[in-house]
Design goal:
The protein has 513 residues and is an alpha/beta fold. Helix 7 (171-180) packs parallel to helix 8 (194-200), helix 14 crosses helix 15 (413-425) and helix 17 (452-470) packs antiparallel against helix 18. The radius of gyration is 31 Å and the shape is elongated. It folds into three domains: 17-81, DNA polymerase, domain 1 (Orthogonal Bundle), CATH 1.10.150; 83-216, 3-Layer(aba) Sandwich (Rossmann fold), CATH 3.40.50; 257-512, no CATH class. It is built from 18 helices and eight strands.
Length: 513
């Protein structure tokens, strides 16, 4: 993960073609050089002006200074705003700041121009430092600009070069980064080609802003992409195998990764399932030793130990949860979306009521044909089947499995796989299907709200409602529980309000930092 991120401006954050090329054309015209096609002037985007005038038109020092003056004559007034921010850049910058990254602009353009452009497009707030060239002509080399940015970032302390990355679209950005000793990312959506960036020695190359996002917002705890891999899937892979031995090695590597990904997804659920069974039967056996015969054994103990077995089994996968805890935190890259999350939450409650009623009807029909099954006290039912078991299940499936699946699957696929896995792991087919459906909605809510706590909270509340309907001590009519259901819906509302209050307090603390 890169903590200190340096962006080039032109061709990386924005498309400056019209402003730069037209101003350069204006300067050439004032010097008696006719260049009607601004497309031919694209190479001037990126390098220092002095270098562009010298290399492209073989001008002397005095003519170069005159050309720069003419260029700035138009650019300072009009050209600097003939510019467009690339789509997705504002959102990327916002999310980087939310993740406490230290973000800077390191541009060969005059600092005063960079500041004005960032302010004009409303993205200045996302940058901790803005460093460019100086009006007196000094600090015009990209290497000097990067060094100055790093000096300001670390305020005289020893820089942590391994956590610094320079992002640019031209070889000047890449070569300067190498000379300074930091990692570089080349972007091909600007004005430099893939060939130019590869030859310059770019550490990684991406074709789109989304590809850049995937590199800069790598989930914590997950492995980083290998150097020079194009995450967008476009263009040739620089690490393409060139021999049968390479292909064989790559095949083995893919197999190992596929197995690791599959086990990372299924393993925690399997360990949880085995652990909950082992602990449950083990606790039942140990407590049974204190009673002379089976008839004296309180049946309520079995229900309580069932819940304890699930909670203790979470210890089996605690290490797995720690490895993805940072990923869960890093994954919150959007503002909470109440518009979609709140209706989903109430849909989850309605589903809980419907499923609870269905299970109760099934239980009543079974009781009429057989010996009545043991019904635990109402409060015990709520604690065990409304809090303990749902909390443990959500911890494993939503907290671990879903986020592990998100590592190597896209879109809604991780959610669907998690729902399937959850339904298969539950001992009761009907209960497993019910909990799996509610689990899917709780995951959706967490994604919309940006935090795992919303998944856990909504799942427990809906499980409480389901338990209230399913395990109510009233057996004459299901709908006699309507008041209990309303009370739990009220509790759900209070919980959501409290979660929102704590969320705002946390954001306020982060803002102060």
């Amino acid at each position: 993960m890169y903590r200190y991120i340096l962006f080039d401006l032109d061709g990386t954050l924005s498309d400056p073609k019209v402003g730069i090329c037209t101003s350069f054309q204006y300067a050439l015209s004032k010097m008696g050089i006719d260049e009607p096609d601004i497309d031919k002037l694209e190479p001037v985007i990126g390098p220092p002006l002095k270098e562009s005038f010298a290399n492209m038109y073989n001008l002397g020092e005095e003519e170069i200074q005159q050309g720069i003056a003419y260029y700035r004559e138009r650019y300072s007034d009009v050209g600097k705003f003939e510019n467009e921010i690339y789509p997705g850049i504002p959102e990327l910058l916002r999310d980087l700041k939310k993740k406490d990254r230290v973000v800077a602009v390191s541009s060969s353009k005059l600092t005063v121009y960079v500041e004005e452009i960032l302010e004009h497009f409303g993205i200045r707030e996302y940058f901790d430092y803005v460093v460019g060239a100086l009006l007196d002509g000094t600090r015009d080399k990209k290497e000097d600009i990067i060094n100055e940015t790093i000096r300001q970032m670390f305020d005289g302390a020893e820089p942590d070069y391994d956590e610094i990355v320079m992002i640019g679209d031209r070889k000047y950005d890449i070569e300067a980064a190498l000379n300074v000793g930091i990692t570089s990312i080349g972007v091909t959506y600007g004005y430099g080609s893939r060939e130019e960036l590869e030859e310059a020695g770019a550490g990684k190359i991406v074709n789109t802003v989304e590809g850049l996002r995937s590199l800069l917002l790598i989930p914590m705890g997950f492995s980083k992409p290998a150097p020079a891999i194009d995450l967008t899937g476009e263009g040739e892979n620089p690490r393409k195998a060139k021999s049968p031995e390479d292909l064989k090695a790559m095949s083995k590597d893919i197999s190992r990764k596929s197995f690791a990904n599959t086990w990372g997804f299924v393993g925690p659920a399997l360990m949880y399932w085995l652990g909950s069974s082992a602990f449950f039967y083990g606790l039942v056996f140990l407590t049974g030793l204190f009673f002379k015969n089976k008839a004296e054994y309180p049946e309520v103990f079995t229900v309580i130990l069932f819940g304890l077995g699930h909670l203790i089994a979470c210890l089996f996968v605690m290490k797995d949860f720690k490895s993805v805890a940072k990923h869960i935190k890093e994954n919150a890259v959007t503002e909470p979306n109440f518009k979609f999350a709140i209706p989903a939450f109430f849909a989850e409650l309605i589903l809980a009521v419907a499923l609870g009623s269905f299970h109760k009807i099934s239980a009543l029909m079974q009781e009429s044909a057989e010996e009545p099954a043991y019904i635990p006290p109402f409060v015990i039912s709520l604690i065990v089947f409304g809090i303990m078991v749902p909390a443990a299940s959500n911890f494993v499936f939503s907290g671990i499995c879903y986020h592990r699946a998100s590592k190597f699957m896209k879109g809604t696929v991780p959610m669907l796989f998690t729902i399937i896995l959850c339904s298969f792991m539950e001992r009761s087919t009907g209960t497993g299907f019910s909990l799996a459906l509610m689990m899917g909605i709780s995951i959706y809510i967490a994604d919309k709200m940006g935090k795992y706590i919303y998944s856990l909270g909504s799942f427990i509340v809906s499980a409480l409602v389901m338990a209230a309907v399913q395990y109510s001590t009233t057996t004459d009519a299901i709908y006699d529980d309507s008041m209990a259901i309303l009370r739990f819906v009220g509790v759900a509302g209070v919980i959501m309000i409290l979660v929102n209050v704590f969320d705002k307090k946390e954001k306020a603390k982060n803002a102060e930092k």
